[in-house]
Amino acid sequence: MNWTAFYRLAGALACAVLIAGNPAEAVTTRTVALAAHEGSDDPVDEALAAPMDLDIAALKDKYQNAVVKIEFTALRNQDETKLNPTKSENYYSGEEPPHGSGFFISEDEIVTNAHVVEQARTGSIRIKSPAAGNVEFKVEVRGVGGSENIDLAVLHLPKDELLRLKKRSGLKKIPTLQFGDSDSVKQTDPLAIFGYPQSSDELKMIQAKVTGREYLRIKRGRFICGHQFIEVGPGATVQPGNSGGPALDKSGKVVGIPSRGSGYGSEQGFLIPSRVVLHFLDRVRQSEGGKKSLNLPKLGIGLTENFIGTCVWSGAPEDVVTFELGVLISELVPGSLAEKWGLKDQDILIGFANKQLGISCALDFGGYRVGTGRMKNWPEGLESSESAEGTTEPEQSKLHLSELVLRSNPGDDITLWYVRRGQNGIQKIEKKFEYVNVGNIPHLGTFDKPSYELWGDFVAQDFNEFNTSVFELPTRELLQGGVLVTFVEPNSLASRRGMEPHARDTYSFSFNDDYEPATTWAIIDTVDGKPVKNLAEFKAALRAAEKKFADAEKAPGYDPSRRMFLKERYVEIGFRTNTRQGTVLRLNPAFPIDEALETAKKDNPS
User: Fold this and answer.
1) pTM of the model
2) In this predicted model, what pLDDT tens digit does every residue of 522-544 receive, in sequence order?
3) Separation of alpha carbons 344 and 329, rounded Å
4) Domain count for the chain
5) Residues 378 and 458 in one domain
């Protein structure tokens, strides 16, 4: 997939953009607001009366040399070759090289988005700086988070290239940008977005207004990256090429990094908040160029929206029902941290606290932090009948439980309040947070290819973070073990026997008309009736079957004309696969070994 593709968010965002982008509307709104103060004793709101525009020219003069264009040689089919490593790599050959933006945070470090560099050929990434007249300088990948997890990457400028950049630019010191406080950014605040949109070699600056905060949802209960984005507009704010650049506030501090656009003509942009960047920056640095996983915190639960009736049936206290508190655990992953802590399926989580982060909050039916009314003071609100002051928390404080967990660190003191059917009152868990890798799914390096078995006309691999994500494998299937079929030749022996895997593209999510994931997977778990739990066992079982067939062909009395009747000629490969109806089928077709070996030899002559 081309790196410039942005996730297309389906929703009614266009209207908000059009309003924000209409000068007449903006003037009318402000005039009415000022007029409301006329004739009263209340002072005019200075923030309302003050001009909202930034001094873009001043920001450019001061910070432009800290922003760079990032170019690279792009592998067009990198994701495809991860699923089928036998396929030849295909490089982008257009006139304009794929590119993104980035900025210096130290003399030899540049921050950008992970999706800017994920499709790059190793060793091909270079930067251009306005300070050096857009001369190219080679950089190395120090760390990559992952476009679907933490969409950040850190690039390193080697010492010789750093010296050359200083010499070409005449700079004694490379200018750097500092991070500001994204939590202080409010709606209507102006931001300056620096970057290299489209095919431009010239640094462009765009002023945008903050329109809100947004979780980008891909289906119920699941978010892209797990954190809020800062939403900005109006019109064409985040274009291909802007990704990875800085969004500056009026003081010149970086409060966000453009990561995604809505994909419409009047486009909203979505920025990674600087708070998220700072929280994960060291982990990204330490990923060894994307070879190591970030080990993102998780409880190992699936959540679904709660309802009053569910609360009543669970025996929840009246205040929990009245204030509509608690999100329902719809799935508990075996071996997860939540299971270790004693949570159960159908428990209702009504509160969360992290002592080290200074967070203690009630959760609403959707799993969001409660920021209004009595229950915004948690857990004191449970014990008081007095209403809280009629103020609401800032929008950025209405965090989802998934992000509250994401912000937690190993060793943090965590408290969870919950309601369980059959137990009276509110229950409480107090534990130290820890990282638990359910199923021990290995991380596949950003630029690495997996081990595999090409047999017949299909490719099988061990489970890894990449293939399990693009096939959207349920955790219960991973825990059962087996090997994942990641590629099948169309109209082949395997496809005619029921192996028809279909993965989604990375950085996008596919759904059918029923709003269910439109992915199909096949997991091989037996060979000739014997279980196989991983790729090594699968290979060993195939080699044993091939040897039996070879021995049978050499046995006295073997008649080649009756080969089709020879039992040893066939190997029975058992696998389970999902259907569009959500069911899982078990199939045990027999494959002719000689035909499979001949096909594999043609597909992979080496």
Assistant:
1) 0.82
2) 999 999 999 999 999 999 999 99
3) 8
4) 3
5) no
